């Protein structure tokens, strides 16, 4: 992974896209933004899915992430990899979506509009067995554990980088990851036992 | 830990023989079916809308903002003058209030401080109360309390409405795309019989009581809102997967489309409908509906599945094997586990068409993806084709 050197705004994007494109991005060139979007959209969308953002929420959440990115690119100091920044934006957005859904769900339950359980198992996108198992196991993790697990085991980031993204000490991250891995394996084993 | 010695990161699950392929496969699935072009188009539209709205707001708001600021300044100045007038009735300044009251009583009616007349309402009454009190002779503290009570009572009735109950937040326009279902209107919520416990339809299904589950979902589907949407969708799934009643499932999905044309499960319903049409042998209809679905943004997100489905339909006709192979190729291009499966199916088609080199390439692509369910079978096919053992070129 390319790590951006600290420095000017141009250097921010140099680590990810060619310099002319970076300049054009900052000048508001739609084509340059398109290139930036093309590069980071698959990462952001897949990461949001892994964080448990439902497919119906994903489009909104992804848009919000890129709106934030577009709005604050000029303020991005370039001391970190833009991807690190993107991951952080995604985590924040996923948290917002989760809170909003929780509130909506609570309201509906209070109004006795929904039963206590979810009727639809998971109609979001693919229903392949392997992915269902992973998704079910990930659902057992807490928000922080899930972020740590996905970033380490599925996105392949280094511990130091993850600690910077989630904003904790490395020691805390390893503890979280340890707990997450244990819960994940337990949930996966349970899903094997179930018919 | 000493000095700068940094322990290595723990070994990742990707090196685990069981978990590694599973995570890799899930990663591929998570990355599949993303339509970047549509996402960017929608994002651009949103940015343009925001920019236009901001520009319009700036143009429209400039004048009123200045006017409001001027009004606010004038109101502040009047407020301060009114405060100066009101302080006479409280506390140790009461003695001085008497003198001022006399002065104010001496002024002709209607020439009071302009703020009192201008604001009217409770403030006029408050001023009256204040004036009534201050017109009394040097009042003892009791008079001050009476004035304060009169002032409070004059304030209360008008202030109360300002502190009304908080209105529930309205959902944002973008919430239509969000999983959170729309907030139910009060009459709908009231219509739900709250005293009766809800029947657990899924529990019936889990315990093997399919007919009871069908009846339960049917009853719930007769209601309205998200609960009815979900019940209709579950009813269709139950009929398709458990009761093996594809026609009934199709009817439930048709009812969903008719009742909830913009429902939150519409994408799933459309896809399930295409699958059912194919299952019922209505290939032409399935092909036309899947083609229409592929033209939509939500359909493109499921393009890999749809192309595999279309390939399967074409493949039933021995004369349409090339069309099937083309559909599988499009699914293959989407990647992911569905893409890998499409490689294998395309290999079958190409082999049947006599294109052994193409079939070998497709099989090898499938074999290179770890954790595939037909890996052993495909390896045998690769060996057989590589060894040049062709048996008439037709191995569907």
Write a structural description:
The complex is a heterodimer of chains A (195) and B (396). Chain A has helices spanning 9-14, 19-26, 30-50, 55-72, 82-110, 129-139, 143-154, 159-166, 170-193. Chain A is mainly alpha-helical and 195 residues long. The longest helix of chain A has 29 residues, at 82-110. The N and C termini of chain A lie far apart (41 Å). Chain B has 396 residues and is mainly α. Chain B folds into three domains: 36-106 and 115-156, no CATH class; 201-301, Serine Threonine Protein Phosphatase 5, Tetratricopeptide repeat (Alpha Horseshoe); 327-396. Chain B has helices spanning 19-31, 36-86, 94-106, 114-119, 121-135, 141-159, 186-191, 201-206, 210-221, 225-242, 246-259, 266-279, 283-294, 297-301, 303-315, 321-333, 336-353, 356-368, 375-386. Chain B is extended and about 105 Å long. The model of chain B is unreliable at 86-99 and 104-196 (pLDDT under 50). The chains are: A mainly alpha (195), B mainly alpha (396). At the A-B interface, helix 3, helix 4, helix 5, helix 6 and helix 7 of A face helix 1, helix 2, helix 10 and helix 17 of B.
Structural class of chain B: mainly alpha
| Number of discrete domains of chain B | 3
SS field, number of helical segments of chain B? 19
From the alpha carbons, calculate the radius of gyration of chain A and give it in angstroms: 19 Å
CATH level 1 name of the largest domain in chain A: Mainly Alpha
Number of E-state strands of chain B: 0
Number of domains of chain A: 2
Q: Largest interface, per-chain counts?
A: A-B, 56 and 58 residues
β-sheet strand percentage of chain B: under 5%
Oligomer: heterodimer
Helix-strand sequence of chain A: HHHHHHHHH
| SS elements, strand count of chain A | 0
Name the CATH superfamily classification of the largest domain in chain A: RNA polymerase sigma factor, region 2, helix turn helix motif
- Average per-residue pLDDT of chain A, rounded, comes to 74
The coarse silhouette of chain B is extended
CA radius of gyration of chain B is: 38 Å
> Which range does the strand content of chain A fall in?
under 5%
**If helices are DSSP runs of H or I spanning 4 or more residues, what is the number of helices of chain A?**
9
Shape of chain A from CA axes? Answer: globular
